Amino acid sequence: MIPRPVSLLDNDFYKFTMQQGVIKLFPHAKAHYRFINRGNHQFPTGFARELEKALANFSDVALTLSEKEYLRATCPYLEATYLDFLQGYRYDPSEVTIKQQGTNLSVEITGYWYRTILWEVPLMALISELYYLITDQDRLSDDEIIIKNERKIKSYRNLGITVAEFGTRRRYSFNVHKLVVQALKQFGGRTFIGSSNVYLAMLNGIKPIGTHAHEWFMFHAARYGFKMANIMGLEHWVDVYRGDLGIALSDTYTTDVFFRQFDKMFSKLFDGIRHDSGDPVLFAQKAITHYKRMGIDPLSKTIIFSDGLDYDKVAHIAGFCRGKIGMSFGIGTNLTNDVGPHPLNIVIKMVRAQPANSEWMPVVKLSDEHGKYTGDEQTITLAKTVLGIS
């Protein structure tokens, strides 16, 4: 059976928060996204055809009145005009182009940024679920999944940390995801603080968690240049949210460049920063040094760690950060796709942007881990030269 979408809110929270920002600030901008098969996975014959069939079902998805009321009550920084827009929003499958040559899958998304921004996460989740379905890969039973996640959240509770679930995009399936969140809530107590998935957060009465993603800063580079991308991205976030949603993503153009531009105003205004690539302990050291240099107590700020986490990695990070800086952990694939089959290593990234009254411009991401670079080599080289990245 082809997977069907369950809700417009079955998406990561930062897609909606960014969408509101795009509508307010860049309503005429366009974006082009591309599927990147990092793991070189081989897709079976006919996969693209089945993906197109599943994608057609998205055009019927709409925000319900109860979902709209949930957002209004839970997220006061989402404005009434935006919620009205979201109620009228419909996915347009014509914005997505799917091709397959042999075992290679190609997916491109193109259109107005305020519309196409919602495709990335549910489309990745659909590719993942459909892959396991077509290749007939069995998973743990429901009871085994619940027991496994009970054990995981209790081990994190013993570390004295807080954990959120960030695993929508590379989950095994929606049903597995739902079981995982239910188990984390049931057994996590105060350790489990929420989910990036808005629909499952709503179902379980927990907090939807997220702020912005790399594409926010990647677009700002196309609009304002590489040197101003972080600064203008943060300025515009503050303009839209006025102090709410105060976790800044740090590694779109390397952490070192970010900290050079994360001045005292930003450092005081934002509640913390998110780590998503490179050595997490080295990142924490740099963050502590930065806050101290700004005259800010690092314990008053929080690092959200979210890069490929499992228990051993979390325990190592927590051991270093404890007593030095605030911390929390967003754990994704290790929760929602640790059920038997090997998880897919796939992403969908913005590759071009077209600010209003401008030409299409290539965009890049320069993470602290070179394997996570995205974009064409010529633009990557240009960005590194402009930003002084060796």
Textual characterization of the structure:
- By secondary structure, the protein is α/β, with parallel strands linked by helices.
- The chain folds into two domains: 170 residues, nicotinate phosphoribosyltransferase, CATH 3.20.140; 195 residues, nicotinate phosphoribosyltransferase (Alpha-Beta Barrel), CATH 3.20.140.10.
- Helix 10 packs across helix 11.
- It is globular.
- The model has no long low-confidence stretch (mean pLDDT 97).
**Strand arrangement across the biggest beta sheet:** 6-5-4-10-9-8-7
CATH superfamily of the largest domain: nicotinate phosphoribosyltransferase
Q: Taking Cα atoms only, what radius of gyration do you get, to the nearest Å?
A: 20 Å
Number of domains: 2
Low-confidence stretches: none
Label the CATH architecture of the largest domain: Alpha-Beta Barrel
Number of strands: 12
CATH class of the largest domain: Alpha Beta
Q: What structural category do the secondary elements indicate?
A: alpha/beta
Number of helices: 17
Mean pLDDT across residues: 97
The main sheet comes to:
7 strands, parallel
Helix content: 40-55%
Task: State the shape.
Answer: globular
SSE topology string: HEHHHEEHHHEHEHEHHEHHEHEHEHEEH
Q: How much β-strand is present in the residues?
A: 5-15%
How is the CATH topology of the largest domain named?
Answer: nicotinate phosphoribosyltransferase
Task: Measure the end-to-end span.
Answer: 50 Å
